[in-house]
Amino acid sequence: MVIISHLFSLGKKMKIYKVYVFSGTIKIKMMEKEMGEIMQAYTYVSEGKFELREKPKPVLMHERDAIVKVTLASICSSDLHIKHGSVPRAVLGITVGHEMVGIVESVGSAVTKVKPGDRVTVNVETFCGECFFCKKGYVNNCTDKNGGWALGCRIDGGQAEYVRVPFADQGLNKIPEEVTDRQALLVGDVLATGYWAARISEITEEDTVLVIGAGPTGICTLLCVMLKNPKRIIVCEKDENRICFIREHYPEILTVSPEKCEEFVRDNSDHGGADVVLEVAGAESTFRLAWECARPNAVVTVVALYDKAQTLPLPEMYGKNLTFKTGGVDGCDCEETLKLIAEGRINTEPLITHTYPLSRIEEGYDLFENKRDGVIKVAVEC
Fold first, then answer.
1. What is the DSSP letter of 311?
2. Distance, CA of 44 to CA of 152 (rounded, Å)
């Protein structure tokens, strides 16, 4: 059984190593091929440094792989976490990017759900579909060696002209004909995250729901909370541009700044606090604000990724009897969200405020990281 596949380039040759285990004996097989086509790929060079570099176009390495010609990718806050060393498992030299759409170019012999020529979204999660956790829908905890967040972190991702997608039948979803690439771009990551967060938060139509943070993931979370039709939704955000965006596109949503949030939530809820809180901002202050704004016996869903450990002050919380839900996204609802987009019930395209060609991706990163010009989401044409 193959347990490891790895390739690298040397001059004009490409070497592929495959490691096999037979009855406890390890055998290594090396195949050398001409390198073939070269592509542009945005690469994690060192802590604090990404760079657009030439790399070999990826090849099929397993019968369940697919090669996708990337048409549109995006820049995500998680990419910045990698850049600045906040993701220890990220591998130096990998192509970054985990949110993309494209056209299937080739598939392995075991792939049955997609074929060359299909337009597809690419899932942020890599999952086998067969282990205990995958069968339960907990795909973030897939036990395969490449399970979980692999693309753009532990294996080459999609801020490039091409990407190899393992377990293609699980990680690719066909885009409906009536849905554009821009409409589908956020399906595999931030929209998947928002949909998962809303799904696990036990929202009812009688609830007051507080969403903390109106960045791309926060707005996608808001859109998915709106599908649940709660009694009222409050968005807490400190950035005035993002507050204006919410008011312009979703005028029925209440907005408040962090400084006034706790009092505002008490005054605009039926039981002294929010019935459900979704923390999507990822700061130490917002982690605390989440449980402070929750009513007793509320659900607090932590969607954010933090740069450092947070403290849960149990003595102060004693008696509130809160239920916390947290973790990485189980991104197995992409087919459903694509259907909702096709039906006009979700529209994430307004979040794409800026677009750059791959050749100018560094400009896109600079804009996004420094939050200039009202940026929410940056698309990259590959």
1. -
2. 9
